[in-house]
Amino acid sequence: MSYARLRLKKNEERRIKSGHLWVYSNEIDVAATPLTGFEPGQPVIVEEQNGRALGLGYVNPHSLIAARLVSRSTDYELNRSLLVHRLQVALAAREARFDQPYYRLVYGESDLLPGLVIDRFGSHFVVQIATAGMERLKDELIDALKKVCKPESILLRADSSMRSLEGLDSYVAQAWGETPERVELVENGVRFLAPVHEGQKTGWFYDHRLNRASLRPWVKGKRVLDVFSYIGAFGVQAAAFGASEVWCVESSAKALDWLHENAALNGVDEAITSVEGDAFEALKQLKDSGETFDVITVDPPAFIKRKKDAKEGMNAYRRINEAAMRLLGKDGILLSASCSMHLSRDELLDTLRGAGRHLDRHVVVLEQGHQGPDHPVHPAIPETEYLKSFTARVVLP
C-alpha cells in the first residue's frame, strides 16, 4: 500500500527520535505537506525534513496532536494484521501478570495503539476509541479482537470527551454479541458488577487495583470513610477486608445503588453507610456532626484537566485533603490519590504536607502508590503516567 507522507520541520524530529509518538501541528512543514491535504484518520508515513522516514502513523489535520505513530518501521501496514500483533503482545503481558481475566488489555500509547483503550471483564470487552485514526480502523480492530481473544461480546464506548477534540461524534454501540448492562469482575478477591453501558468511562477503573489492595492491613476492625466512592471499589473492598464500618460519599444516587448491590454481592452491605451529595459539603456536615474515622480514602476525579486549571485544581486538592484530615481520629490513616496528569507526585505530596501543617498535624508517608501493571508507562511519553497516591499517617501534635 502506498502512503501519503507527512513532513516535519527542521529539527522537530528530536522528540520523536527520543521515543515519543505524538506529532503536534506546529511541528509540521505545512509548506511541503499542507495539513489541508489530509483526511482525519488517514494513514501516513511521518518523515524528517530531509525526507528520511521516522515511522508509520495516522493524521488528523483538525487536532493539536496532528499525528500519532504506531510503528517505527514502514514495512508493516496499518491494518488488521498489525492490530492482531499488537493485541497478542498486550494480552501476553496481562496474562503473565494476572491470574484472572479482569484487566485493562490495551492502554493506548503504552501498548503502541494510540487512541485506543480496551478493558476486559472475563469474556466481555469494552472498547474506547478516542482518535480519528482508530475510528477509521474500527472494523479491522473488532475483527482483530475477535481473533485474539474470542470474546462473548464487544461494547464500543465511543463517548469520551477526547473525541470532540478529534472532531468525532459520541456514541455507545454493540460491536459484537450482547454485553449485559452490568458485567462481573473480581479484584483483590472481591466481586463487583460494573455498569459498562452507563457508568463512568468503561464502567470500572482498574488502575487503582494495587492501591486498593494496600488497604487490607490498615482497615481491619477500623471505621473507614471512602470519599468519591463511585460504585464502591475502595469502600466495598475495605468492608470485605474486615473494616467494622464504612461510610461512602458519592454525588450520584445511581452509583450508590450500584455500590450497595456490590456490597450485598460480598455479604458486607450491613457494614456500609452511604452519603449522597457533594464531597466538600458532605465532609463538612460529617465534621459538624462530630464524626471521626480511623482510615479515609480520597480519590477525586481529575481536578486539573488542563494546565490552565492548575491553580484552581491545586486549591481543590488542598481543600478536600484538609477536610479529610479534620475527620481523622488520633494517628489516623489517609490514602490520598490523584488521577490528574498535570499534577505531579511531588505536588500532591506538598499539598498533603501543607494541609497537615495548616491543621498543625504531621503527615508521615507510609506507602506510595502508582497505576497498576495493566496501565504500563511509556518512558518517552510522560502523559502515560498519571496516577499517584500516598498512604500517610496523620499525627496529632
Can you summarize this structure?
The protein is 29% helix and 29% strand.
Report on the structure:
By secondary structure, the protein is an alpha/beta fold. It has three domains: 4-71, Roll (Archaeosine Trna-guanine Transglycosylase, Chain: A, domain 4); 80-176, RNA methyltransferase domain (HRMD) like (Transcription Regulator spoIIAA, 2-Layer Sandwich); 183-395, Rossmann fold (3-Layer(aba) Sandwich). The chain is built from twelve helices and 19 strands. It has helices at 14-17, 80-97, 132-136, 138-149, 162-165, 209-213, 216-219, 233-240, 253-265, 279-288, 310-326, 345-358; strands at 4-7, 22-24, 42-47, 53-59, 65-71, 102-107, 116-121, 124-129, 153-158, 171-176, 183-187, 190-194, 223-227, 245-250, 272-276, 293-298, 328-338, 362-370, 388-395. The strands form four sheets. It has a seven-stranded mixed sheet, sandwiched between helices. Strand 14 (245-250), helix 9 and strand 15 form a beta-alpha-beta unit. Helix 2 (80-97) crosses helix 4 (138-149), helix 10 runs parallel beside helix 11 (310-326) and helix 11 crosses helix 12 (345-358). The chain is globular and about 70 Å long. The termini are far apart.
